[in-house]
Design brief:
By secondary structure, the protein is mainly α. The chain has one domain (31-119). It is built from four helices and no strands. The protein has helices at residues 4-25, 32-61, 66-87, 98-119. Helix 2 (32-61) packs antiparallel against helix 3. InterPro entries: DUF423. Keywords: Membrane, Transmembrane, Transmembrane helix.
Length: 121
């Protein structure tokens, strides 16, 4: 059984680290578009890691399922990961998988809405 609160905390630590790296280390090494990709990836990582923290708490309280957590985590990896990779030099076609991550993030939130609605009936 995965401890989603711990996973969320790790994601948040990674978000802080990568945000600082983007603000200081790579700022002068990449162009404006790449830096924008980095900022977008960091923002989405932060927001969804916080969401994952809440979902972890809801799982413990019996209001949510692991499906929402997995969808968010895989979505974070694909969405933010592809943007980070492109910033660091991955080919532009790599961005074609970014929307897959976004769809998984949306699915995770919708699954949470459905499961919480079912539990609250």
């Amino acid at each position: 059984m995965v401890n989603w609160i711990s996973v969320a905390a790790i994601n948040l630590a990674i978000a802080v680290s990568l945000g600082a790296f983007g603000a200081h280390a790579i700022k002068s090494m990449v162009n404006a578009q790449q830096l924008d990709w980095w900022h977008t990836a960091t923002l989405y990582l932060f927001i969804h890691a916080l969401g994952l923290l809440v979902i972890g708490l809801l799982i413990r309280l019996g209001y949510a399922t692991y499906v929402s957590a997995w969808l968010l985590q895989i979505g974070i990896i694909i969405f933010a990961g592809s943007l980070f990779a492109m910033t660091l030099g991955a080919p532009r076609w790599f961005g074609a998988i970014t929307p897959v991550g976004g769809i998984l993030l949306i699915a995770g939130w919708l699954w949470l809405a459905i499961t919480v609605f079912k539990v609250s009936k």
